[in-house]
Amino acid sequence: MVMAGGMIKRLVTSTILGCGIFVGGGIASLHSATAQITGSEVPPPEPAILFSADEVDYNQELQTVTARGNVEISREGRILLADTVSYDRSQDVLTASGNVSITEPTGEVTFASYVELSGDFKEGIVQDIYVLLDENTRIAGAGARRSGGNFTEIAKAVYSPCKVCEDNGSSSTPLWRIRAARVLHDSDSKTVEYEDARLEVAGIPVLYTPYFQHPDPTVKRQSGLLAPSFGSTSHVGSYFSQPYYWSIDNSKDMTFTPTYTTDEGPVLATEYRQRLDSGEFDVVNSITRDTEDDWQGHIDAKGRFDIDPTWRWGFDAEQASEKTYLSRYGFGSPSVLTSNLFTEGFRGASYTRADAYYFQGLKSDDDRDTTPIVLPHLQFHGQSAPAKYGSITTLDLDGLSLTRDEGTNSHRVSAKAGWELPHVGTMGDVTKLSLSVRSDNYLVSDVSRTNRENYSGYTGRLLPLAAIDWQMPFVNSQGSYQQVITPIAMAAWSPNGGNPDEIPNEDSQSFELDDINLFSHDRFGGLDRAEDGFRASYGLEWGIYGPQGGYTSAMFGQSYRANENDTFARGSGLDEHLSDYVGRVTVAPNQYLDLTYRYRLSKDDFSARRNQVTATVGSLDTLRLNATYLHFTDEAGSEEFNEREEIYFHAQRQFNQYWSGQAYGRYDIDETDPLEYGIGFVYEDECFIFDGRVRRTFYRDQDLGESDEFLFRLVFKTLGEFASAAGL
C-alpha cells in the first residue's frame, strides 16, 4: 500500500515493482542503477543497501529515497546511522546529516555533522569529522575526504589518545596531542601521516616537524622508533638511548638500541627474536669501543626447539669481553655467565638429558685457566609404575667429564638403583621404606689431598643405603578452622668412609643445614660427596588453617649423626653428633600479611647461628611493604661471607589512579652503612607514561667504585611504542 505523497510508514509492508526497493516492517533493500546486459552474460548482483528508518519518502520520478528518524543503513559490513539520509539512485550518491556515525568492519567509528558519500561509502566528503580508533584514540578535524574506502584525509586535525574531561561544563585540554594542517589515515596499511605537525603537552607546543608518521592503534607490531630513555651513571656519565624496532615479518623482529655516553664510547645493543614451527630463539648482544680504544661487548642468547613429541634441544650462550662490562653498561650484574648446549627427552616417568657447559666467572679472583669446562654431562632418571603393594623401582645414571687448563680434571660415571615401598597404616601414619645402591667411578688427575701428593688415576666407591621415613598427622577441627600436628622422623644408614680424598669435590661444595633438607637421606646437592654412616632426624610440624585461605604454621627439628667426622665442614651444623636446631614459622592470616621466620639455633645454648625474617604487609592498591632481615655468624658455615647482618626493604605505594612510587634499600647493620638504595616514581594513564628512578650503590666491584644512577623514560602511547628496556 502506497500512501499519499509517496510516504511509506515504518510498519507498513509494501512491494514496489520495477524500482528495486522492497519495504517490509520498515527494512528496505536498495540496489544501485543496473547496467545493460547483452547476450547471455549475467554479471553478479551488486551488494544491497539495507536500511531501516521511522519513515521513508520515495520519489520515483527523481529516483531518490529520503529516510528520516533513527536511520540505519548497512552495506558490505559498513553501518551508517543518522537523523536524515537521502539517496540518489541515478547518481549513486548518499547524503546524511544529524548525528552521523559510520562504523567500519574493522571497528573504527567516524562521527560527523554532514557526509556526502558514494553508495558504497568508499568515496565522499565529511564535515566536522571525529574518528574513534582502537584503544579510544581520536582524530578530529574541520572536514575530511574519503577515497578508495581506506583513505581518510582530514584537514586542520588533532590526534590524541588522551581522555578529555568535562570540568565545570567546559572540556579540558588533553595531556598531549598532535595538531597538524593535514592528517591522512590509511586503514589498509594502518598508518597515520601528518603534515606541518606539532606536539603539544598540556596545550603548550614542544616539538614541530614538517612530516611525521606512526602506525594506528590497531597495529601491534610495526617498524619504528620506540620510547627513548636517558639518564646518568657514575660509570659512563650521561647517556641517551633511542631504540628502533624492526618488524621483519610475522615470525621475526629485531630491536636496535644505540646509546650515546659522555664518559665512554657509544654503545650499540641489538636483540633479534624469531619464532619457528619447532621453537624460538632470542639473541641479545652489544658492542662498544671504550676510552682506551679497546673493543668491548657481550652476548646473551637463548633458544629452545622441539625435535619430536619426546625430545627437544636448546642452548644458552653468555659471554662478556671483561668482568665488569655488564655492570658498567647496565646489562646486569651476575657473578657467573653460563653457556649451555643441551638436549632432553620426556617419556612417561623417565627423563634423559645431555649437557655441555662453559663458564665465565665475573668475580675478581676468577681465573679462566682454572674454570672448568663440562663436556658432556649425561643424566637419566626412570621409575617404574607402582607394582605390588605400591612399590616403585628407580634407576639414575650420570656421566660427567670435567676438564681445566690448570688444576683437577675429573671423569665420572655413576649409577644408582633404588626401591621404595610406601605404606599407610590404620592409624593414618605414613611410612616409606627406601633401599638403594650407588656406584661412583672416577678417572681423575691432579686431585689435591691434605698432607699428601696430588693423586691421578682411578678411584670410586660402592654405597648402599637403607632408609625409613615416618610421619603421622593429627587433625583437629575447631569450628571452621583445621589444626594439623604432624610428628616426623627419618633414619638412614650407609657404610662409613664414603668420601675418600682421591675423589674431587666439584658439585657439592656449598652446604648448609636448614628446614628444607633436614629430612633428606643425603643432604649433599651433588654426587661428588655422599653422606655416610647412620643418621636420623626428628621434627614436628604444626599448622592451623582458616576457611578463607589464611594459615599459621611452624616447624622445628634436629638431626643426629653416629659418626663425628669431616664429612661436613665445620660450622655447617652437621659436623658433630647432634646438629643445630632448624625450623621456620609462617604467619599468613590474609592477603595483607605474610610473615616467615627461618632460623638455625645452636644445639648448646640456643644462640642464633642464622636468622632470616621475610615480611610482606599491605596491598598493592594502597601501600605494600616487603622487608627481609638476614643474620649469620662466623659459626654458620658460610663459604662466601664472614659474619654479616643485613636488612633489605622495598615499599610500593599507589598514590592515586595514575601515580605510583617505590623505594628500596639494603643496609649492613654491623657497619651501620647503606649498601645501596633507590627510589622511583611512575605516572601512567591511557596515553602517557613517565618513569623516573634514582639509585645509589656504596660497594666496589673490582674497578667500579660507588655509583649514582638516574633514569628517565617518556612514552607517548600509540606513537609506535612496542617495548622498551630500562637502559643503562
UniProtKB/TrEMBL annotation:
This is LPS-assembly protein LptD. Coiled coil: none annotated. It comes from Thalassospira indica. The keyword Membrane applies. It is found in: Cell outer membrane. Keywords: Cell outer membrane, Membrane, Signal. Transmembrane segments: none annotated. Residues 197-275 form the LPS-assembly protein LptD central domain. Component of the lipopolysaccharide transport and assembly complex. InterPro entries: LipoPS_assembly_LptD, LptD, LptD_2, LptD_C. Involved in the assembly of lipopolysaccharide (LPS) at the surface of the outer membrane.
